[in-house]
Amino acid sequence: MKLRNYTLRYLIIALLGVIAIWAGLFYAVILDEVYDNIDDGLKNSKILIIREAYANEKVLETKEFGINQYKMTPLPKGTLYDFSDKFISTFEFMEYDDDNEPVRLLETVFNDKNGNPYKLTIRASMVEEDELLEDLLTALVALYIMLVISIAIINQIILRKAWKSFYEMLNGLKNFRLGTGNSFTAPHSPISEFKALGTELEDLLKRNEAIYASQKHFIENASHELQTPLAISLNKLELFAENNTLPEDQMMELGRISDTLNRLVRLNKSLLMLSKIENRQYADEEKVNFNALAEQLVEDYQDLTEYKDIKLNINTQEQLTFSMNKGLALTLISNLLKNAIVHNHNGGTVNIILDTRSLTISNSGSSQSLDKEAVFKRFYRDTTNEQSTGLGLSIVNSIIINYRLTVDYSFNGLHTFTVTFPETA
């Protein structure tokens, strides 16, 4: 979710709460004002009715509510009464609406001109209160919808303009690659925070570029310096073994030393490749046909499979293509296939299946499952084969990470490695 939409979501939720609280308070204030106006009208009616009762005693005979909306109830003499005004909100049946509707009552006690006590009850309809609530609710809903629409429009226009430099900076970072020689330049921004962020990113990436170049030269030089003495040592051992007649036990010892040096050479090459992959030094990409690569490697490993009497089955009916460095694609399949052959038993099987989105290589191998959490880690070896460097699957994993693919290991009698490619491949 984009930052501006993330902010908008919480803003809308906050507005909903704020408007709900504000609407409640607003309604309470309006209702209190309505009651106050109605009560003022009832008080004024009380004064007029009592004045009329003093002038015309027939008013005292109004026992029920009529068109004048008041009634008189005679009270016994000799009792102390509370002559203050009392206001009551209640419901009474309205013939027009054929339902109970809210009314406001004023009850008070007064004495007529002869000193007889009467209770005066005056009624005022409050039907408008319900209508007011409905109108207020409708207005608030409309207000909320208009606020959300207005904020969304402001968000798309004003905030998009404000965040423009940020997204330009983000796109620049996505396209930036170490070692390509292209420097990162932050876009101009009138916002001081984005300007500071751009400056820091430029400095950070310059430092990383320098460190990357230093590490690249160090790895290349170290690898070269290691390869030279190793090659010299191997050549001298071979010449020494050819030109000297040594006892069998010493010749075997020379053979073990030669095997160790050869393993060191392979280890050095594998570590160098891992470093290059992780540093993204394989920049050239093209549309790679994995079916053709798989068939090519099957032919290349034919001598090894025949030597171990391994039956190799390949299913390439569906075409699998993906844009990546062809050398790395070849290394990916080669390491998985070689791993399946080398760690297989004599007379075993290897199956290769390709479809439009995945490459699966399975082998019979050992009867025990590998450690799924550690199988792709460096120097992991679940074998007694001293020739193994423990880096083949680690190189596979680095290629997978570099191109945002996924690889999964499973065991169901066969050791199965499945590489899944994105749908856009």
Structure explained in plain terms:
- The protein has three domains: 3-158, Beta-Lactamase (2-Layer Sandwich), CATH 3.30.450; 192-278, Orthogonal Bundle (Helix Hairpins), CATH 1.10.287; 286-420, Histidine kinase-like ATPase, C-terminal domain (Heat Shock Protein 90, 2-Layer Sandwich), CATH 3.30.565.
- It is built from nine helices and eleven strands.
- It has helices spanning 3-55, 127-162, 164-175, 192-243, 248-278, 290-300, 302-307, 326-342, 392-402, and strands at 70-74, 86-94, 99-111, 117-125, 286-289, 311-315, 321-324, 349-354, 358-363, 406-411, 415-420.
- A hairpin with a 5-residue loop joins strand 3 (99-111) and strand 4 (117-125).
- Helix 8 (326-342) runs antiparallel to helix 9 (392-402).
- It is elongated.
- The chain starts with a helix and ends in a 5-residue tail after the last strand.
- The model has no long low-confidence stretch (mean pLDDT 79).
Mean pLDDT: 79
| End-to-end distance | 24 Å
Structural domain tally = 3
Reported by name, the CATH topology of the largest domain is Beta-Lactamase
Provide a short characterization of the protein structure.
This protein has 425 residues and is of the alpha+beta class.
Tag the structure with descriptive keywords.
3 domains, Beta-Lactamase, single chain, Heat Shock Protein 90, 425 residues, Helix Hairpins, four-stranded antiparallel β-sheet, five-stranded mixed β-sheet, alpha+beta
